[in-house]
Amino acid sequence: MTDFQEQQPQQQPYHPPQPPRPPYEPTQPISTGPGTTVWPSGGHVPPPAGPPLASPVPAPGPSPRRRARRGVGLMAVVAIAAAAVGGGTATLVQHLVSDPAGVSASAPVVSGTNVSSGSKGTVAGVAEAVSPSIVEISATSNAGKSTGSGVIITSDGEIITNNHVISGATSVTVQLSDGKTYQAEVVGTDADKDLALIKLQGASGLKAATLGDSSKLRVGDEVVAIGSPEGLTGTVTSGIVSALDRDVTVAKDEGGGGQEQQQGGQQWDPRQGWPFEFGGQQFNGDTGSSKTTYKAIQTDASLNPGNSGGALINMNGEIVGINSAMYSPSSSSGSTAGSVGLGFAIPVDTVKADLNTLRAGGDS
User: Fold this and answer.
1) CA torsion through residues 125, 128, 133, 135, sign
2) Cα–Cα distances in Å, from 141 out to 266, 269, 325?
3) Which of these, 144, 147, 133, lies nearest to 306 by C-alpha position?
4) Which secondary structure element, helix H or strand E, spans residue 222, and what is its range?
5) Alpha carbon distance 317, 301 (integer Å)
6) Is the dihedral of CA 43, 49, 52, 56 positive or negative?
7) Are 351 and 147 in contact (CB under 8 A)?
8) pLDDT score, position 326
9) pLDDT in tens, 184-233
10) Which residue among 177, 214, 242, 308 is the active-site one?
11) What are φ and ψ of residue 85, in 5° steps?
């Protein structure tokens, strides 16, 4: 009987004593932080509080294999979840990098005659955009006829030019870039700044230029000049800003106002360019006793008689100056060598500040 009792347990699988259970319910997850959950049967399990537990004795039979398969499955789930979270994070980072402000912002667009994006920064693009806004001005006076240039600033025909182009004029004729001609009246002049405002009669739908910001100019910036030198309408030249804030002195009166005389009169020789002073020296003829001094932009863009009153333009197609004077050396025969890269323009900020005065009649 005793032998039978000793053999009877061998008929059933032997189960050795199990180690103490861990201080958590195996069927419940362990939360390690907001948004992260780890199951005890797979992955990392934080150590329980209190003294360390004894190493469990491996259970015989298929139990470890069942736990291993279960652990692999749950670990795969955790990996997939982590990948999903990581993918969302990567998407968010990519979104923030591609759009730091969180909202896609359109590039600023400036109205007027700005250069198209495909031609931006090129002389050809600037010329194409701005040339329709540059005109040729013919002013007739008792002393003869002068030719200069001007810039359309409103669609109904307001035009900025130099005072010395129209000074003393009895009639003013304007030719557009497309060949159309208009009669114009002088609205206002400011001899101290060598500026004048004229208005076309019966004009509408014209392409007005964009007035830029000359305070942002830097020495070395590229610029384009457009005007009608020697009556060659729509001539385009280019160069850079050579200097800023040059004190240029020009004549104020009709007798020596720097008009590009083409016929008649006893005024200065038109081949000498515009009379002006710089550094106490006179250039291109006598400026006379009545004169004014202003701060000018110096440029090496080629300017010649007839460019006076035309536009100096930045590479965005914005007007930054009104060309007003140039130096041209002369020989003993009286002929000139043309532009030598010493031209001057009235800053457009001066023009903008003077517009209301000119529209009110100025000092005319």
Assistant:
1) positive
2) 12, 16, 21
3) 147
4) strand 222-227
5) 15
6) negative
7) no
8) 84
9) 999 999 999 999 999 999 999 999 999 999 999 999 999 999 998 888 88
10) 308
11) -65, -45
Question: What pLDDT is stored for residue 178 in this prediction?
Answer: 92
Measured over the CA atoms of residue 71, residue 77, residue 79 and residue 82, the dihedral's sign is negative
pTM: 0.63
20 within 8 A of 53, measured Cβ to Cβ: yes
The residue annotated as part of the active site, out of 41, 146, 149, 164, is 164
Q: Name every residue whose Cβ is closer than 8 Å to that of residue 211 and which is 6 or more positions away in sequence.
A: 153, 318, 319, 348, 351, 352
Is 302:224 a contact under the CB 8 Å cutoff?
no
* DSSP class of 215: G
Residue labelled with tokens 């053999």: 7
- In 10 A of CB 254, how many CB atoms? 18
Which regions of the chain are under pLDDT 50? 1-2, 4, 41-45, 68, 74, 76-113, 255-272, 331-335, 364
Distance separating alpha carbons of residues 341 and 302, to the nearest angstrom: 6
Q: Is 131:226 a contact under the CB 8 Å cutoff? A: yes
Q: Phi and psi of 340, rounded to 5°? A: -120, 20
Active site residue 164: yes
